[in-house]
Amino acid sequence: MLKIFFKLLFLLSLPITLISAQDFTDFTHGYEKLRNTPARKGVFVEILLPKVQAENATILEDRAFVLKFLNTYLITYNANDRDSIYRLAKLAKRYRIKRIYDKESYINKLAPIPTSMVLAQAAVESAWGTSRFVKLANNIFGVWTWGKEGIVPEHREEGKHHKIKIYKNLEDSIRGYMLNLNRNPAYREFRAKRLKFANEEKSYKGTDSADTMTNYSGIGHKYNEILKSTIRKNGWIQYDPHVVKNKRNTKKWW
Asked: In the predicted model, is pLDDT for residue 12 greater than 60?
């Protein structure tokens, strides 16, 4: 009994190091050493969630600017408001909108991505933040590039020329991924469904948008099911928005 007592006393005297999600801002500096699956998943969300929400907020700010500008400029026609016109032109170029005053195109393309689906795709594409491309390129969505700079995939097929795009940080990776979904013709179905839900005053959840991600992966519809399963298993639907109405009874769908 005395031996057990001293052994317990020794163990209690050892310093206890608690791993907090606040200790991580990206997937480096010890993240890969997290062996406990629930702990790693928790840290994964803590790292990405505020960054995803911040980028969605930026998209909403741009959307609000465009709608306000188009609703007033085309009526008042203040030609001196060059800064706003320049900002609008930049957004039109960024989102590949051919007609600068095409309000419906902005409504279609300048809208947030369901947070739960962003988390699910990040988890699937980056192996929960542990992939080589995350470590070397901050690329958490497996985005390709055909430019000069990039990382050649280890098992790239002969005759293929794509590379893994390099990002400065995770924020840039999230921004690039969202822009891709919002302007790439391959995800036209995703945007059309989002707009349909908005017009019907229905919340566009990650499990809804995941059904439109067939073109994102080579495994087709199976990929959609993997995303939906990941969202449900981790309870990420809670991070998606709900439809509400303001005092004027106009829908605020995000």
From this structure: no
The CA-atom distances, in angstroms, between 145 and each of 51, 131, 148, 152 are 23, 18, 8, 10
Which pTM was predicted? Answer: 0.83
The percent helix, strand, coil of the chain (3-state, each to 5) is 60, 5, 35
CA distances from 251 to 56, 61, 148 (A): 18, 17, 45
- pLDDT per residue as tens digits for the range 68-87: 999 887 666 665 678 888 99
- Tell me the three state secondary structure of residue 151: strand
- Each domain of the chain, given as residue ranges in start order, spans 30-242
Q: In 120-187, where do the E strands start and end?
A: 144-145, 163-164
Report the top-level CATH class of 30-242.
mainly alpha
Q: Give helix 115-126 / helix 170-183 axis angle, nearest 10°.
A: 110
Strands 244-245 and 251-252: antiparallel
Interval 40-64: pLDDT, tens: 899 999 999 999 999 999 999 999 9
